[in-house]
């Protein structure tokens, strides 16, 4: 066995592995003997096929397998033993590889291209200044938060007269001109929402109407989605397509959604009895929650800026030609054209992974199971709060986190997020952060530039 490394430049090298019979013959013989014990060939008892016939039938395929194993194992052993920091995986060399004759050759030589990890220099110190953009929580944002809670605990109440966006319940009947159509569509106790009615003129026909009144209108014009209409009237779509547009609706019930009054009852429903005792405290609590929510957005923006800063500081090259080949071979959905088109984005991500790994390794930033579980709980809490559930019992968060931890793909994603956050937190502790407060509109505009 002879392994030689040849550096083409600072980022590319070729490793040639030369194999002699001494490296593979014993394994070939061993494998053929194992197959001989199981071989069933017509004219011979099981396990009694002569070795000469075994070699004739299976010798070449076994040779190929065993040589490939020897080459692969020793190639990776050489890389590990010599502390060669590579990108991707070794790829068969496309120019120096000699043609192999498996039936005649006894010695084999295989050449592999490797992409070398570049030298990375990072200089993030207190002299490095990074802007952070805390979001100002405005009264409008607090008002919207109050309205969200009020609507969450609101309810539909029966009213006497139809107004805009009310919910009506009543009976439908298909018309033939002005009278009910014989064998036409009829459906009782149907709920319709004026909010989703598409024609404003038809909607005006309903405004001011009372229970017991009837209204004739073009149903297909009011609600043009025929699939939705078919579901509404509990008929097949083909029946709606063939039906007349004119329907009569007899109003049986009118209900209107009313948000919950902002009072002590609402405070108790949102935060638990006695936690909040005045509207002033309610606003302060909501402001605190909004600040917590937008802090994640602020931190996300800061993380993007730190990534960009570190990439600018490091300013290193990659073995681009090698990586393009590797991306195509390593991803079945990638093509040369798609990799070429998107390589700038791939390169940025690869560079960030290299920077992150270097910082984590040099500063011993470890990820432990407790870190992963804590992040899973944070994700769970965020999801609950998106549905307006602010006070989530710890046992529910624990249960949700445990479910996530059963999925290895989720665990890997969480691991990567935790590692990235540890690296970003480490950099934040080293640089000088300069805060500049902005409105939520100004903050969102930064992502449009």
UniProtKB/TrEMBL annotation:
<dbReference type="GO" id="GO:0044183">
    <property type="term" value="F:protein folding chaperone"/>
</dbReference>
<keyword id="KW-0143">Chaperone</keyword>
<dbReference type="GO" id="GO:0051083">
    <property type="term" value="P:'de novo' cotranslational protein folding"/>
</dbReference>
<dbReference type="Pfam" id="PF05698">
    <property type="entry name" value="Trigger_C"/>
</dbReference>
<keyword id="KW-0697">Rotamase</keyword>
<dbReference type="GO" id="GO:0015031">
    <property type="term" value="P:protein transport"/>
</dbReference>
<feature type="domain" description="Trigger factor ribosome-binding bacterial">
    <location>
        <begin position="1"/>
        <end position="147"/>
    </location>
</feature>
<dbReference type="InterPro" id="IPR005215">
    <property type="entry name" value="Trig_fac"/>
</dbReference>
<dbReference type="InterPro" id="IPR037041">
    <property type="entry name" value="Trigger_fac_C_sf"/>
</dbReference>
<keyword id="KW-0413">Isomerase</keyword>
<dbReference type="GO" id="GO:0043335">
    <property type="term" value="P:protein unfolding"/>
</dbReference>
<dbReference type="InterPro" id="IPR027304">
    <property type="entry name" value="Trigger_fact/SurA_dom_sf"/>
</dbReference>
<feature type="domain" description="Trigger factor C-terminal">
    <location>
        <begin position="280"/>
        <end position="428"/>
    </location>
</feature>
<dbReference type="InterPro" id="IPR036611">
    <property type="entry name" value="Trigger_fac_ribosome-bd_sf"/>
</dbReference>
<dbReference type="InterPro" id="IPR008881">
    <property type="entry name" value="Trigger_fac_ribosome-bd_bac"/>
</dbReference>
<dbReference type="GO" id="GO:0043022">
    <property type="term" value="F:ribosome binding"/>
</dbReference>
<comment type="similarity">
    <text>Belongs to the FKBP-type PPIase family. Tig subfamily.</text>
</comment>
<protein>
    <recommendedName>
        <fullName>Trigger factor</fullName>
        <ecNumber>5.2.1.8</ecNumber>
    </recommendedName>
</protein>
<dbReference type="GO" id="GO:0005737">
    <property type="term" value="C:cytoplasm"/>
</dbReference>
<dbReference type="Pfam" id="PF05697">
    <property type="entry name" value="Trigger_N"/>
</dbReference>
<dbReference type="GO" id="GO:0003755">
    <property type="term" value="F:peptidyl-prolyl cis-trans isomerase activity"/>
</dbReference>
<dbReference type="InterPro" id="IPR008880">
    <property type="entry name" value="Trigger_fac_C"/>
</dbReference>
């Amino acid at each position: 066995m002879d392994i030689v490394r040849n550096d083409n430049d600072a980022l590319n090298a070729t490793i040639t592995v030369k194999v002699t019979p001494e490296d593979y013959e014993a394994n070939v013989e061993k494998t053929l003997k194992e197959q001989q014990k199981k071989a069933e060939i017509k004219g011979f008892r099981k396990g009694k096929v002569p070795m000469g016939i075994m070699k004739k039938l299976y010798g070449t395929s076994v040779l190929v397998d065993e040589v490939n194993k020897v080459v692969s194992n020793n190639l990776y052993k050489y890389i590990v033993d010599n502390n060669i920091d590579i990108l991707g995986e070794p790829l068969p060399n496309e120019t120096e590889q000699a043609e192999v004759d498996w039936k005649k050759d006894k010695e084999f030589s295989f050449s592999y291209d490797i992409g070398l990890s570049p030298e990375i220099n990072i200089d993030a110190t207190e002299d490095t200044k990074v802007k952070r953009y805390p979001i100002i929580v405005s009264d409008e944002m607090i008002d919207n938060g109050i309205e969200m809670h009020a609507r969450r605990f609101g309810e539909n109440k029966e009213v006497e007269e139809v107004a805009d966006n009310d919910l009506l319940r009543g009976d439908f009947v298909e018309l033939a001109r002005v009278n009910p159509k014989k064998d036409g569509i009829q459906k009782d106790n149907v709920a319709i929402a004026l909010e989703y009615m598409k024609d404003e003129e038809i909607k005006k026909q309903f405004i001011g109407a009372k229970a017991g009144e009837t209204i004739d209108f073009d149903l297909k014009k009011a609600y043009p989605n025929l699939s939705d209409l078919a579901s509404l009237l509990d008929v097949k779509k083909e029946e709606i397509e063939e039906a007349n547009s004119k329907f009569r609706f007899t109003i049986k019930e009118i209900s209107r959604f009313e948000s919950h009054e902002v009072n002590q009852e609402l405070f108790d429903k949102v935060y638990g009895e006695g936690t909040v005792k005045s509207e002033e405290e309610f606003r302060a609590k909501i402001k605190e929650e909004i600040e917590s929510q937008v802090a994640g957005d602020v931190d996300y923006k800061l993380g993007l800026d730190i990534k960009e800063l570190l990439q600018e500081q490091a300013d290193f090259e990659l073995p681009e030609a090698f990586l393009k080949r590797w991306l195509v071979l390593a991803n079945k959905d990638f093509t040369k054209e798609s990799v070429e088109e998107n390589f700038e984005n791939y390169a940025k991500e690869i560079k960030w992974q290299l920077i992150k790994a270097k910082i984590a390794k040099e500063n011993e930033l470890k990820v432990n199971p407790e870190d992963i579980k804590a992040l899973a709980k944070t994700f769970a809490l965020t999801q609950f709060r998106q549905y307006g559930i602010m006070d989530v019992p710890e046992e529910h968060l624990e249960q949700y986190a445990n479910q996530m931890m059963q999925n290895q793909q989720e665990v890997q994603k969480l691991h990567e997020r935790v590692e990235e956050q540890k690296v970003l937190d480490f950099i934040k502790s080293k640089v000088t952060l300069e805060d500049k407060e902005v409105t939520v509109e100004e903050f969102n505009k930064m992502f449009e530039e």
